Amino acid sequence: MAHKGFTPSKTFVDTATHAQSCQSICVQTIQHCLQVGGSHVEPSHLRLMQDCAEICETTGTMLLRGSPQHNQVTAACASICELCAQSCDRFTGDAQMKACADECRRCAAACQQVAQMRPGGAAGGHHSVP
Amino acid sequence: MAHKGFTPSKTFVDTATHAQSCQSICVQTIQHCLQVGGSHVEPSHLRLMQDCAEICETTGTMLLRGSPQHNQVTAACASICELCAQSCDRFTGDAQMKACADECRRCAAACQQVAQMRPGGAAGGHHSVP
Amino acid sequence: MAHKGFTPSKTFVDTATHAQSCQSICVQTIQHCLQVGGSHVEPSHLRLMQDCAEICETTGTMLLRGSPQHNQVTAACASICELCAQSCDRFTGDAQMKACADECRRCAAACQQVAQMRPGGAAGGHHSVP
Amino acid sequence: MAHKGFTPSKTFVDTATHAQSCQSICVQTIQHCLQVGGSHVEPSHLRLMQDCAEICETTGTMLLRGSPQHNQVTAACASICELCAQSCDRFTGDAQMKACADECRRCAAACQQVAQMRPGGAAGGHHSVP
After folding, report:
1. Which of D31, D46, D47 lies nearest to residue B47, judging by beta carbons?
2. Radius of gyration of chain D measured on its C-alpha atoms
3. Per-residue pLDDT tens for C53-63?
4. What is the pTM of this model?
5. How far apart are CA C42 and CA D12, in angstroms?
6. Considering Cα of A107, then A65, then A49, then D128, what sign does the dihedral take?
7. DSSP assignment of A3-36, as one string?
8. What distance, in Å, lies between the first and last C-alpha atoms of chain A?
9. By C-alpha distance, which of A101, A53, A110 is closest to B57?
10. Minimum-distance CB partner of D28 among A24, A64, A94
11. Which residues of A touch B67 (CB under 8 A)?
């Protein structure tokens, strides 16, 4: 028996994967920063890391459900990820911060591309043929 | 003993309260829609309700921590809340959908105002004097 | 025109309100702790505050949709809120930490009560009579 | 330059990965159910799918930050994942529901194991030697 169903587009799923990886490393890196202390726990840096984790979570979920209304959210996610990467860049010689910055930039690039898609354009949600 | 600390601005807290109320009614209204069935469970309507609940949650949290990087997120939240309100409007004569649309519009208005604030402008985070 | 619909029980809504208030004050208090620094940014304290905010969010949402499967989640929320309150208690003379501890205890008490309800018992989800 | 830092245990990271995969497939499967309609949009089934996505998200995040207070949450996650799997099982012949049930069971098994660890036992958070 066949079911018409829902499959988000490959672009959406790939970008959601980036967003989830970025959320994960941010959550871990916040804990790393708390453990290290000093300039790593500067309030605006940790606030940005929390914001980044959160907007990545929302972005990933919206893309996985194929939301055509994603454009402003993915654009916001790209901006916050880029800011977070820059904030992480300042901790030279810290491998965790470097890994976090790299993941943030990968997510920012993926989100930037998706954000520029025509609204509702390739929003996935194709009905599979029965 | 005095502590310098953090207090988000009143505008931020008020907007966060709208965002949380909007998230709450969306979560309840999704369940209402499932219970009612029929056109209430139309995929794009329920997807939008889920997106709205989620971006409201993120918006509320970012504002409560006084994030200066909120502008694109609050703008996205305003847009999605307005779309969600319009989607709820179609169910005339359904008090729950009317209440949800009203709350979405209140949140959209509050977020729209905050989104237009100068980035980092009134981001709260005042240090109280010791 | 009448619609059968969904209304979560008053107990559920009240407990969800406690959970949301607790989440909100935890989010704000994390930022307060980062601003104050010193022992306020001790890793296990801030980790617990983040956990508390997060389980409160999940608990609130589950209750708002009237989930009969809430018991273990509300019990977990009660435990984590109580631990978070104890962790906040240590910062004597800090009004924000006191307010956070109080809110955590109110949420813990509400969740404890709901957790002991018979599974699925008063899960709300009453169909309103047309 | 070396930094003492934070690394969650391998068991925690692996379980968090299961939780995130389970959240992802639940989010997608909810949209699939809405698209298919009929018995797929039965209120208690979709409520459970939403609960499952949400507790998985919380569980994943708690584990990634190495929380010693995870036991009740991972136990709750295991229970809800198992119930969600059973709910998905009923839709025989639907590949998406089958895939979702399988992922829920993998997550339930991983969470069950972690839940039984001594509280705080292998909570990770090892300080790497400088």
Report:
1. D31
2. 16
3. 999 999 999 99
4. 0.92
5. 21
6. negative
7. ----B--HHHHHHHHHHHHHHHHHHHHHHHHHHH
8. 8
9. A53
10. A64
11. 47-48, 51
Q: Which two tokens stand for residue C89?
A: 């208690």
Measured CA distances, D46 to B16, C94, D83 (Å): 28, 44, 12
What φ, ψ does residue C64 adopt, rounded to 5°?
A: -65, -25
How many C-alpha atoms does A124 have within 13 Å on its Cβ side? Answer: 27
Cα separation, C38 vs D61, in Å, equals: 25
Question: Beta partners for C126?
Answer: C7
CB contacts, 8 Å: C90 with chain B:
none
pLDDT in tens, D76-121: 999 999 999 999 999 999 999 999 999 999 999 999 999 998 765 4
Cβ separation of B27 and C65 shorter than 8 Å? Answer: yes
ipTM of the complex: 0.89
Largest CA distance in chain A: 61
Cα–Cα separations (whole angstroms), residue D13 to A18, D9, D117: 17, 6, 15
Question: Which tokens go with B130?
Answer: 């010791």
Query: CA-CA-CA-CA torsion for A53, A55, A60, A63, nearest 10 degrees?
Result: -170
Per DSSP, helices labelled H in chain C are 10-36, 43-64, 71-89, 95-115
The verdict on a CB contact (< 8 Å) between A51 and B72 is no
Give how far Cα C104 sits from Cα of C30, C48, C117, D75, Å: 14, 12, 20, 22
Task: Decide if C10 contacts C114 (C-beta within 8 A).
Answer: no
List CB contacts of C26: < 8 A, sequence separation 6 or more. Answer: C49, C50, C52, C53, C56, C84, C100, C104
